[in-house]
Specification:
Elements: E1 2-7, E2 12-19, H1 21-35, H2 51-58, H3 60-83, E3 92-97, E4 104-111, E5 116-117, E6 125-130, H4 135-148, E7 151-154, E8 165-174, E9 177-190, H5 198-204, E10 212-218, E11 232-246, H6 252-258, H7 264-298, E12 300-301, H8 305-325, H9 330-337, H10 341-368, H11 375-389, H12 393-402, H13 406-424, E13 427-434
Parallel strand pairs: 6-13
Antiparallel strand pairs: 1-2, 2-4, 3-4, 5-12, 7-11, 8-9, 8-11, 10-11
Helix pairs in contact: 1-3, 2-3, 4-7, 6-7, 7-10, 8-10, 10-13, 11-12
Amino acid sequence: MKATAEKSPDGFVTLEIEIEAEKFAKAVEKAYRQVVGNYLVPGFRRGKTPRPVLERFIGKDRLYEDAINQMIPEAYREAVADTGIKPLNQPKVEVSQAEEGKPVVFKARVMVEPDVKLGEYKGIEVKRPAITIRPEDVDRQLEKMRDLHAKLLTVEEGTVQEGDYLIIDFQGTIDGQPFEGGESADFSFQLGGGQMLPDFERQLTGLPVGGNGKVVITFPDSYPKEGLAGKEASFEVTVKDIKRKELAPLDDEFAKDVSEHDFLEELRSEIENRLRDNAERAAVSRASQILMDAVVERAVVDVPSVLVDSQFNMMKNDLDNQVSQMGMSMEQYLKYAGTTQEQMLADMRRRAGKDIRVSLVLTAVGRAEGISVSPDDIADRIAQLARTSNKTPGDVTKLFEEKGEIPYLRDTLLREKVLAFLREHAVYIDEDTPVE
């Protein structure tokens, strides 16, 4: 077998592969033996039809096609190994010659991994932030826990305050006329929670429980509901119920109620340790990102646009599916995200280009250092995922195989291994600024 490779600027390689005539002849004979039993030719028993007769009956091209289909996969694999290319997808095959007595010649066009010229990737200096947990950090977490476990008590007498949970009736008019959406009964919300317009909420402060009041607001010019933007509206409001949070005192009893600890100091110690673990993970994540950016910046790689397009289309399809699953239109999502479609697509394309570049460089580092992912590595990760999802490893494996995500899992593990190698060979410089 002979094979030559011609690379084009668009990131594809065309392999021209020639298979010996003798191999083709054997493949045609094998194809004949495989199909002869499928046809009943007049004058012959099934499976005993001579080849020349069968060729006249079904056409010689049928046998040639079967023979070529059997030969091409193996010949392509050999050509890939001989030429040293690194394909990224399945090839597009075109047969240019297939006649008995002559070599079979075909071309295979395939996208290949771009060449990566690595720069220095060991001994890179990385600033490592200090890990400092202050008493006030623990205090903030305790206050969040107090708020989370607070009791809601009905206010029998008193007036509305910020943070209260209210039930109100309201009737609104514009120019003395009711309008759609301007009336509600037993409407519940938290004052200051952002559910109502700030001006509406502000004017409720100080109203007594069971009392009435008048609220006058002007809808913002950007108000989304048609016909209300910029309009002044007047509301008659009745405060039917007020509930207010009662925070438990920070003492040992609180610690017993919200945790497995008997003493508040033990709870504080647990929170401090948890915050320190989180800070250390954040520090490692930030250092890894800085390190990875430095390695990629030092490398030279020309990313073909077709790879960026492929990554971009995958990211866009994922986003479309996520938006659809949230029950939103893309217009609603863009408004929620505070961006435009043009800006979003431009940002997505930039991220796609960066993701491809990072992936290529990390793969090149792994290849240079002999880092690989073994079947045991994949099995261990699947076992870990099975434990966290209360499934069997077999079920998780089947799920990955059905979705075609085993290669993605392998790439993820390789990326983790390469990053661990880079971190191990980095030079860390401690700094005083604490990590948030």
